[in-house]
């Protein structure tokens, strides 16, 4: 398919293109609102260090053991509802939820907030962003 054909399609189907763009924008806004804003890595590190918070890594165990943030707790997303009590000592402290790319952390953060962990927030970009910035990880 040539670029000329793509532009022709876009010109002829501008209503569909506009509807798709609107839908994607609304979806992105909805996802960001349900778990609150994402923290940058610098904000997250400062918050956890200054207020005695914790990084909660919700990736599966095998991904966690390949490399994780120092002192992070690992509770895979699927286990979070059953293991949420393990976070009780952090109920009033910041909990920064970490996943692979920063996308799955939203629903885990929402779950934590619904259970009274009002200071739970997600890490923007997840471990992929952490690794991209060449920050240290612990391997097991």
How would you describe this protein?
By secondary structure, the protein is α/β, with parallel strands linked by helices. The chain has two domains: 3-32; 36-132, Oxidized Rhodanese, domain 1, CATH 3.40.250.10. It has helices spanning 3-12, 14-34, 41-51, 61-66, 80-83, 105-114, 126-132, and strands at residues 38-39, 54-57, 73-74, 95-98, 120-123. The chain has a five-stranded parallel sheet with strand order 1-5-4-2-3. The mean pLDDT is 91.
Biggest β-sheet, characterized?
Answer: 5 strands, parallel
The low-pLDDT segments are: none
| Integer average pLDDT | 91
Instruction: State the strand order across the main sheet.
Output: 1-5-4-2-3
Tally of structural domains: 2
Gyration radius, rounded: 19 Å
* Order of helical and strand elements: HHEHEHEHEHEH
Strand tally is 5
Distance between the termini: 48 Å
Q: Assign the structural class, choosing from mainly alpha, mainly beta, alpha/beta, alpha+beta, or little secondary structure.
A: alpha/beta
């Amino acid at each position: 398919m040539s670029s000329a054909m793509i532009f022709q399609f876009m010109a002829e189907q501008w209503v569909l293109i506009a509807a798709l763009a609107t839908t994607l924008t609304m979806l992105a806004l909805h996802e960001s609102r349900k778990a609150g804003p994402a923290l940058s890595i610098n904000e997250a590190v400062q918050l956890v260090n200054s207020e005695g918070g914790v990084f909660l890594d919700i990736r599966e165990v095998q991904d966690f053991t390949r490399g994780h943030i120092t002192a992070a707790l690992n509770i895979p997303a699927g286990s979070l509802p059953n293991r949420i009590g393990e976070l009780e000592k952090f109920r009033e402290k910041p909990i920064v939820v970490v996943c692979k790319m920063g996308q799955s952390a939203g629903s885990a953060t929402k779950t934590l907030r619904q259970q009274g962990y009002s200071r739970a927030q997600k890490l923007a970009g997840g471990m992929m962003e952490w690794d991209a910035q060449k920050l240290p990880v612990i391997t097991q």
